[in-house]
């Protein structure tokens, strides 16, 4: 629909420079420049390398997105940007660019929450989110269960990892098995050839009395490392595919069980799964089975929209415009630990931004 | 000519408008931790003070460092984005050259070196002859390695007690704009809008990496 808001979104919270353009819930462009290969030999994301790459890629990626979408920057109804959480220096590059474009083009600026964006991106695939929606976000940086009544203003955390993020556990297990970085895709691939029930790895926080919606993957990661090491010391071959499959089975078992339980406990009949780990084939399969059994509708965006990208930021920005949320002011700061409850960072009433817009009339 | 200049390579957040003859408006605020928050409002404020609409601008000049990276990138990405959105050329200026230009404008004569704080017990520095031409640097070194050390200016010089150290401590965008205007008028090329990092990135994956995206 032509009268739906046309919004450009910028995402630089980690190692992907993402710029997306959406009209309402329709994706028009999703340009990404990744520095993931520059980090591979360090086994994790190096913040300074990521920030340098964002600076180089920022404007070219914006131009590419505008070209792909076939729209002019002057046609935009708003510019959204990840204000946090994420790597401070990396966020700052995107926030600064967004401010400059918004100010130069006289467009409202929306500093939005990265986690809420991960949820909102599903609107580009499956239409408007039902309210409320239960969301399981799993990536190298987050593992959270969130309940959203209104993606622009009401996101409540139910549980989160108390140690490693799920994606981080994949990276560490991949390292133990000598499979390289990032670990998610390669463990998924190996696991397809293995037996998920071959080794009984522990499930964290899975006993009665444990927090119902929190996660723990540190013990699992250590158990895998110990098991592999013991094999090597005994001079026996390591059954890499079985280890990968059994580890993956333990992670997805806990994630899906707790997510379904959260839905049941809160009378929510929709579950969305987002974040890079949502690309995992076994997680998608197991979540579908368990949701079907529980009468819950599962919504998982395609893998390209699950990882960090600009489209998800644009999707939430468009929703902010649609619902008339207050724009951010031009003194918006990047907040590396922005709480998930802060879906966006509205400017104060009578802010600089408001004055600027007043002066332009 | 209507040039908008700014710099975030030193603890100062500074912006200025220059019409080719003189500085029409300038803002200078020292707050090393808030470059990201302050820069855009500062730019908007100097335009208002100069009575210039952003659509009247003809060029941008930005300090490309050397300077602490996180703040430095705020200026560079802002310049790149404004240049793209407003259709303006972006001229890079070595931040140390702008400080030297200001020191000479304030009456410092003869050869001297400029040194700013590079943290980790090092300084970013460059040296200039009596005509103001750069003769050494920009480099990042321990303070004792700055040459010639007869006279020095900048926060790094003051911090480490380099010989005859004096201000200006940080860069001002008015001086940077004036330097850019004169160089362009003399037909000399300025720098591309690319950071003078001078150091390789710290290739450390932080131990607390998992904590960057809390619930
Ligand atoms: Zn993410």
Write structural notes for this entry.
The complex is a heterodimer of chains A (361) and B (215). Chain A is an alpha/beta fold. Chain A has 13 helices and ten strands. In chain A, the strands form two sheets. In chain A, strands 3-2-1-4-5 form a five-stranded mixed beta sheet, with helices on both faces. In chain A, a hairpin with a 2-residue loop joins β2 and β3. The C terminus of chain A is likely disordered. With 215 residues, chain B is α/β, with parallel strands linked by helices. Chain B is 29% helix and 25% strand. Chain B has five helices and ten strands; from the N terminus they run βββαβαβαββββαβα. In chain B, β6 and β7 form a beta hairpin. Chain B is globular, with a radius of gyration of 17 Å. Chain B starts with a strand and ends in a 30-residue tail after the last helix. Chains A and B meet through α2, α3, β8 and α13 of A and α1 and α2 of B. The complex binds zinc ion.
The overall pLDDT average of chain B reads: 93
Strand content of chain B: 15-25%
Structural class of chain A: alpha/beta
Helix content of chain B: 25-40%
- List the ligand species: zinc ion
Chain oligomer state: heterodimer
Please report the distance between the alpha carbons of the first and last residues of chain A: 28 Å
Instruction: Label the overall shape of chain B.
Output: globular
Q: Given the helix and strand composition of chain B, which structural class is it?
A: alpha/beta
Fraction of residues of chain A in helices? Answer: 40-55%
């Amino acid at each position: 629909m032509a009268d739906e808001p046309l919004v450009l979104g910028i995402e630089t919270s980690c190692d992907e420079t993402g710029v997306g353009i959406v009209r309402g819930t329709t994706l028009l462009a999703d340009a990404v420049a990744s520095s993931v290969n520059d980090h591979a030999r360090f086994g994790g994301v190096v913040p300074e390398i990521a920030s340098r790459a964002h600076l180089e890629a920022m404007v070219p990626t914006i131009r590419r997105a505008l070209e792909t979408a076939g729209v002019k920057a002057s046609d935009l109804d708003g510019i959204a940007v990840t204000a946090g959480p994420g790597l401070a220096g990396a966020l700052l590059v995107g926030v600064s660019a967004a401010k400059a474009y918004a100010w130069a083009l006289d467009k409202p600026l929306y500093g939005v929450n990265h986690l809420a964006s991960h949820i909102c991106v599903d609107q580009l695939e499956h239409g408007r989110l039902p309210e409320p929606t239960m969301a399981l976000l799993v990536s190298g940086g987050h593992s959270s269960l969130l309940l959203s009544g209104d993606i622009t203003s009401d996101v409540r955390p139910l549980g989160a990892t108390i140690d490693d993020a799920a994606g981080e556990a994949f990276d560490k297990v991949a390292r133990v098995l000598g499979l390289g970085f990032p670990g998610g895709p390669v463990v998924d691939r190996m696991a397809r050839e293995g037996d998920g029930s071959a080794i009984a790895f522990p499930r964290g926080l899975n006993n009665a009395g444990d927090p119902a919606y929190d996660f723990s993957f540190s013990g699992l990661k250590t158990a895998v490392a110990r098991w592999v090491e013991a094999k090597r010391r005994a001079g026996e071959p390591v059954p890499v595919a079985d280890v990968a499959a059994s580890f993956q089975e333990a992670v997805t078992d806990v994630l899906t069980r707790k997510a379904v339980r959260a839905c049941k406990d809160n009378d929510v009949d929709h579950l969305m799964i987002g974040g890079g780990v949502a690309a995992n084939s076994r997680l998608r399969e197991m979540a579908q089975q368990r949701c079907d059994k529980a009468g819950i509708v599962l919504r998982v965006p395609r893998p390209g929209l699950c990882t960090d990208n600009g489209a998800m930021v644009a999707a939430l920005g468009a929703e902010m415009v649609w619902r008339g949320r207050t724009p951010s002011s031009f003194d918006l700061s990047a907040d590396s630990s922005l709480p998930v409850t802060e879906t966006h960072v509205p400017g104060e009433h009578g802010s600089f931004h408001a004055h600027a817009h007043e002066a332009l009339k | 000519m209507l040039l908008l200049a700014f710099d975030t390579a030193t603890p100062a957040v500074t912006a200025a408008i220059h019409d080719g003859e003189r500085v029409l408006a300038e803002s200078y605020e020292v707050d090393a931790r808030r470059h990201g928050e302050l820069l855009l409002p500062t730019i908007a404020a100097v335009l208002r003070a100069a009575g210039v609409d952003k659509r009247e601008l003809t060029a941008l000049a930005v300090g490309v460092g050397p300077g602490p990276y996180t703040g430095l990138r705020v200026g560079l990405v802002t310049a790149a984005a404004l240049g793209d959105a407003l259709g303006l050329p972006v001229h890079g200026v070595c931040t140390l050259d702008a400080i030297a230009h200001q020191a000479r404008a304030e009456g410092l004569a003869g050869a001297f070196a400029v040194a700013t704080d590079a943290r980790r017990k090092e300084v970013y520095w460059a040296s200039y002859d009596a005509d103001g031409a750069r003769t050494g640097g920009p480099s990042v070194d321990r303070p004792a390695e700055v040459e010639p050390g007869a006279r020095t200016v900048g926060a790094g010089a003051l911090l480490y007690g380099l010989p005859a150290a004096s201000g200006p401590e940080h860069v001002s965008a008015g001086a940077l704009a004036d330097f850019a205007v004169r160089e362009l008028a003399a037909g000399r090329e300025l720098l591309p809008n690319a950071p003078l990092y001078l150091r390789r990135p710290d290739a450390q994956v932080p131990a607390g990496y998992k904590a960057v995206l809390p619930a």
